[in-house]
Specification:
- The chain is of the alpha+beta class.
- Helix content is about 40%, strand content about 30%.
- It has a 5-stranded antiparallel beta sheet with strand order 10-1-2-11-12. Strands 5-6-7-8-9 form a 5-stranded antiparallel beta sheet, with helices on one face.
- A hairpin with a 5-residue loop joins strand 13 and strand 14.
Length: about 270
């Protein structure tokens, strides 16, 4: 399992990836973000799926950059080259993987800004090699464990938010996933790209670095639940208090039950 999220906001790109790799009963740490320099311009790749497939595709793609990198003047051209390598690896390994009970399931997030891109770009590439561009309407994409972190992104993130705000949301989405998915964990790798800067900032964080944030968020969530408007609950819980179950399974109003108890003759 994996958690990688790529976010495109007006001011730049934010990428976050966990490093947990599971193989049978063994868990290891491995980087899931690869950064490339193409003609002095940056791009990154984040992947989910089988590690062996990922390593082979990235190796083939590195060789493609060496041969044809000068022609990658826009990011979509580099994405097309990556897609070609994914299809080549699928032809080489997909059948053997299937026979072993494994699925060729590599998903990839590609972000950056090359020489002739008018702005920074973010793409999601599927295992079949086809791709979609991440647009302002939904300015993020998750690969790997997609369900747990999605609600906080959908509720809070907009294209007009700052990179700093987007990074906070990415960290909260990861924290939600880490708590619910056993195969997602620290350390995490973060990559930041400011629009038109043509350089990345990268940093790795371990659990202790972000533990205060996780605790703060959990306490605020509990407090927010306590402070939710509760008028809509009033009638419901008044009914709960009025009624009770008696041994024969009948529901009896408490006032009627007390009256019946008073009428019961004393032995």
């Amino acid at each position: 399992m994996t958690f990688c999220v790529g976010i495109k906001v007006e001011g730049g790109l934010v990428g976050l990836a966990d490093t947990r790799v599971t193989s049978g009963s063994e868990c290891i740490t491995a980087r899931k973000v690869s950064v490339f320099n193409i003609g002095g311009c940056p791009m990154f790749i984040m992947t989910s799926g089988l590690r062996s497939v990922r390593d082979k595709v990235v190796t083939y793609f590195e060789e493609s950059i060496q041969k044809h990198g000068r022609s990658f003047d826009r990011l979509f051209r580099a994405v097309n080259a990556l897609s070609e390598q994914i299809r080549i690896v699928a032809k080489e390994d997909k059948e053997a993987l299937h026979e072993s009970g494994l699925t060729f399931n590599m998903h990839t997030l590609v972000g950056g800004q090359l020489k002739n891109d008018i702005e920074h770009k973010l793409y999601l590439v599927y295992p079949q090699g086809n791709w979609v561009e991440i647009e302002p309407g939904t300015p993020y994409s998750i690969i790997g464990a997609t369900g747990y972190g999605k609600p906080v992104l959908d509720r809070t993130l907009t294209y007009g938010d700052s990179m700093a705000f987007a990074l906070r949301i990415a960290c909260l989405a990861f924290d939600s996933t880490r708590l619910s998915a056993a195969d997602v964990d620290f350390p995490i790798d973060i990559v930041l790209y400011k629009k038109n800067s043509f350089q990345f900032t990268q940093r790795r964080f371990v659990k202790g670095d972000l533990a205060p944030i996780s605790q703060w968020w959990q306490e605020r969530l509990r407090e927010s639940v306590k402070q939710l408007p509760a008028e809509w609950q009033t009638d419901l819980f008044e009914e709960v208090e009025r009624t009770a179950f008696v041994p024969n399974g009948r529901v009896v109003d408490k006032p009627k039950r007390r009256a019946a108890a008073k009428k019961k003759p004393t032995p």
